[in-house]
Amino acid sequence: MPDLLSMTVASSLSYVIRDFEESARKESGRFVSLYIIFKMTIKRNTAQDIVTLMQIYREGREIMLSCGNVNQWRQGYPTEEIILEDISKGQSYGIWDNDRLVGSFAFIKGKDPTYAYIENGAWLEDTKPYATIHRLASLKASKGIAEACFDWSWGQIQNLRVDTHRDNVIMRHCAEKAGFKYCGIIYLETGDSRLAYQKIEDYSAAKKQIFSKDV
Predict the structure, then answer these.
(1) Which domain does 31 fall in, by range?
(2) pTM given for the model
(3) pLDDT tens profile 106-145
(4) 199 and 178 within one domain
(5) What's the number of domains the chain is made of?
(6) Do 19 and 125 fall within a single domain?
(7) Would you place residue 203 in the very low, low, confident or very high pLDDT band (cuts 50, 70, 90)?
């Protein structure tokens, strides 16, 4: 049986699952998790997944183009070489809907060198360990992929960062909906700018600390 705390997330039918769990408690007198029903599973990608992964990223680029985001993933980014490198480092994760691979992202713990400098703002917190989510994409027909990614990642560490292109309105909306706060502008190694977001466990305390520094 998979580790339900770290490898699964509830789907949009979570209200049904809660009803099932309440019934189970009444029947048995103990908590019975039924997250095994209606779930998305998240696990590390392998090189055997590469064909499906490249299809996911092709459709991800098409989604961006259809929404007017023509400048973010140019020239076939991310390439097969980049994804295979993520896989070799153990930082490429797939999102599975039952037995179908429908989404992918990189989950990277440790300092991101492009986050050392941030412009027109500040990180909510910049002293504790964090993880960054990169290269999030899904098949066109799949729903809830960003939510599944963010929920799972939050279960690993309560200090997350993401960045995205200004024109990526979908990613910006999903990040803000998941509780990420806009922090400022960072620059990639190519010199391209990105909007930076962070989510931490106690945002109110961090906000107070930032304001006190500004005074």
Answers:
(1) 1-37
(2) 0.77
(3) 999 999 999 999 999 999 999 999 999 999 999 999 999 9
(4) yes
(5) 2
(6) no
(7) low
